[in-house]
Amino acid sequence: MSVKLKNISLVVMTAVFLCGFLLWGILKPTDAESVSERRPLAAFPAINSGSVLSGEFMTGFEKYTLDQFPMRNQFRTVKAVTAFHVLGQKDNNDIYIKDGFVSKLDYPLNTGSIEYAAFRFKFVYDTYMADKDMKVYLSVIPDKNYFMAEKNGYPSLNYEKFISDMIGHMDFAEYIDITQLLEMSDYYSTDTHWRQEKITDVAQHLAAEMGVSLSGEYTVNKVDTPFYGVYYGQSGLPLPADDMYYLNNDILKNCKVYDFETSEYIPLYDMEKIKGNDPYEMFLSGSKSLLTVENSNASTDKELIVFRDSFGSSIAPLLAQGYAKVTLVDIRYISPNMLGSFIDFTNQDVLFLYSTGVLNNSITIK
Fold first, then answer.
1. What is the DSSP letter of 41?
2. CB–CB of 6/12 below 8 Å?
3. Which of 57, 252, 327, 333 makes an SS bond possible with 51, Cβ 3.0 to 4.6 Å?
4. How confident is the model at residue 292 (pLDDT cuts 50, 70, 90)?
């Protein structure tokens, strides 16, 4: 074959490849979301004279083509494998892996975010608790970077200052330290969250500091479905799945969970959620603005209100054993101004329980 014919063949094959991908991208149905990344994908932008002249159409079209590119997930995997295993990069899009655990860098410390979170918590306190006989507590849940980042040479938050700042801004709350009870193995390897079966000591410590006791006796149940956490999809790597467990006993089996969003009772552990995009939502059905867990077998009439993020979903059932009722509030999804319509703030214990990830990015708090 002559050099000229080889060149022509190469050009033709390249053109066929490019045109084929172009047609594939045009003809393939638009995907509404990325299951692996757990986020909505860009849709085709509106086209009109205004959007074209302003440049909005081309900006939107670029995002659309990046999100809807054929075999996008496969190309993401190739990129991630190349970055980590060929080029030797320490992270890929802020995702890094050490000793089998995956995390995402959260740096630097955002003092403004901490102040804003504390400001909103103080608003809740001043509005509903300041003149009441209520004991108020604060506890901060460290993210996986607390155990992974600094010792492996990655940028890390100054966690001591982080917690000190939160305590300083929330002088109305008694701080309960749980950092010394946690270690890396208490978290899922592919997800942000802690493992319920590993935090019974944390729950007992929190309860003891608030003046109640927990059973501590559980049946450990394994979920049949493999758990691929949020970092599995974000990393783009073919990582091994986590095993997922949940705890039960006679007290928990008889607890009743009321969902104010749907005005109905829901399961403590929602097994249908295991089949969804985020199996961690099996704990109290995931992101809910306002729930109550009623324990008719409680040895006390004490009640607890927990202001929390998603970490609270898996520890709340354990805490519920020590109280007649636990109210769970997530003010990322309900305005604090509305709480008086649903909660009778009287003499309950109150716990602000938040992860550093939410506190350092607290724009989601209302």
1. P
2. no
3. 57
4. very high
